[in-house]
Design goal:
By secondary structure, the protein is mostly beta strands. It has two helices and 15 strands. About 30% of the residues are buried.
Length: about 220
């Protein structure tokens, strides 16, 4: 926690600030990993911060991190989530903030259960829906790319309010006339919260079907 070396792509979008903390990259030491179906407990790998999934059906995965906002005096927090995939069936990525732990030990194994669970005491949520080679953000459709980036900047400076700025960026390597990444989608949100001691940040992946020759890759 508390990385100051922000990715260059983040600085390009006015997120390179002195008081900006960046979420730790994925590792079994920094994140709590929970899988709803225990037979898929070994169907993931983590390599240099990249979380890779393959060959699993009807399963939910939760990556959870408790962040002590008050103790670390965090005012601005950046979640730079890179993702790409090869998958025919639908899957969802939910980004959630709450003051409670999300636990799927008790056989939460479908979308309705996990959605009800995440909505309880929820502070912030955002959903990425992926079907075949399409990405849906608030019903806006984008084509999958080798470099999809969802930057979320959280601001805790105002008491009892989390302000967030969500930016979706794609690096279009096929467009030779455009040297810069494109801001494809921007959304701003304000959410109330009443406990500024800590937050639980969760990234939830809901998978219908993922074959052995398919994959989902997430990277911080």
């Amino acid at each position: 926690m508390g990385n100051i070396n922000i990715h260059n792509v983040s600085c390009n979008y006015n997120m390179c600030l002195d008081d900006l903390y960046e979420v730790d990259w994925f590792s079994e030491q920094n994140w709590k990993i929970n899988i709803s179906n225990k037979k898929y407990i070994n169907n993931y790998s983590i390599k240099k911060g990249k979380f890779i999934l393959s060959n699993m059906n009807n399963v939910n995965i939760i990556l959870n991190k408790k962040i002590k906002i008050n103790e670390r005096k965090i005012k601005k927090l950046l979640l730079p989530l890179f993702f790409n995939f090869k998958a025919k069936c639908e899957f969802n990525i939910l980004i959630n903030i709450s003051n409670n732990d999300i636990n799927i030990d008790n056989n939460i194994d479908n979308d309705n259960d996990i959605n009800n669970n995440t909505l309880q005491n929820n502070i912030f949520s955002f959903k990425i829906k992926c079907v075949e080679n399409n990405i849906y953000l608030n019903n806006i459709i984008f084509k999958n790319n080798n470099k999809n980036l969802l930057n979320i900047l959280f601001n805790f400076e105002h008491q009892n309010i989390i302000s967030s700025k969500i930016i979706f960026i794609q690096d279009d390597k096929d467009d030779k006339n455009d040297k810069d990444d494109k801001e494809n989608f921007i959304l701003k949100k304000n959410n109330l919260y009443y406990d500024n001691e800590y937050i639980n940040l969760s990234i939830i992946i809901q998978i219908n079907k993922l074959e052995s020759n398919e994959y989902i890759k997430l990277n911080l």
